[in-house]
Amino acid sequence: MSKIHTVAAEKGTVPYYRPRAAEVDVFLHAAERHLPVLLKGPTGTGKSRFVEHMAARLERTLYTVSCHEETSAVDLIGRYLLLGDETIWQDGPMTRAVREGAILYLDEVAEARPDVIVAIHSLTDHRRELYIDRRNERLKAADGFMLVASFNPDYQSGNRELKPSTRQRFIGMSFDYPDQSVEAEIVRTETGAEPALCDKLVQLAANIRSAILPGLQETVSTRLLVDAAALAASGIPPRLACTVAITEPLTDDRQTAAALNDMIALLF
Ligand code: ADP
């Protein structure tokens, strides 16, 4: 069995995504022109949702792999499995996506082992082919195949870098925290929470993002605001909702937590 967690999303309803710039248009053209796409930005800024939205719009199956330091090329390409006294070949998510013409989304690609990056190379140039060394097979990518990867360039949080020779194989788009009105709209649409509450959550996020809190590796993301709003909308008092959905996930440091809770208490 593969050690990696792959999520295969079937074609169907289009998940909600609120565009912020020209990202939808750029992605559609990149898909048409077979260009791999790199999404850069901190966690919780809508990168995965964007890819889910685009895959559904393009009516392509999406294979998502959350990469970590043990994700290897074998995990992505496939392996022989012993089933009773038979040996059978099992395609990994990359091979399936290449065969089927699906979208492969490698989330946090820089975290994966170097052999994953090597496997990407022949897929991201004019060859668009995958070499499956265990089967000595060269697989041409089906027309709809598209490679999308995400990467968090915040070196402070201990993330690995991507080499220029890899980065230059992708077109890139930066994701960041949206403007306040857009973020409030996202939080409202995602949760159905009261508009006044969503506005306050977004104000809280703006306060936290502009504060200097050395104990924080990353600041509050839209995802955490959505979680806080969802809890509040289902009846948890807003102050408690903010503590469990914002303070606790962000820090284990007591002083930083106290500072965050003070900022919450100012608004809720
Ligand atoms: P990332 O992949 O960047 O870590 P996600 O795509 O998982 O972030 O986003 C986290 C959550 O934030 C989503 O589940 C969604 O609720 C919300 N979100 C953030 N940005 C958007 C957006 N532009 N449109 C819709 N939802 C968004």
UniProtKB/TrEMBL annotation:
- UniProt family annotation: Belongs to the CbbQ/NirQ/NorQ/GpvN family.
| Gene3D superfamilies, per database record | P-loop containing nucleotide triphosphate hydrolases (3.40.50.300)
- The segment(s) forming the CbbQ/NirQ/NorQ C-terminal domain are 183-265
Tell me the keywords, alphabetical order.
ATP-binding, Nucleotide-binding
* Keyword ATP-binding among record annotations: yes
Return the PANTHER family for the record.
DENITRIFICATION REGULATORY PROTEIN NIRQ, MOXR FAMILY PROTEIN
The name of this protein is: ATPase associated with various cellular activities AAA_5
ATPase dynein-related AAA domain residues: 36-170
Give GO MF terms, alphabetically: ATP binding; ATP hydrolysis activity
The organism's taxonomic lineage, starting at the top: Bacteria, Pseudomonadati, Spirochaetota, Spirochaetia, Leptospirales
Specify the superkingdom: Bacteria
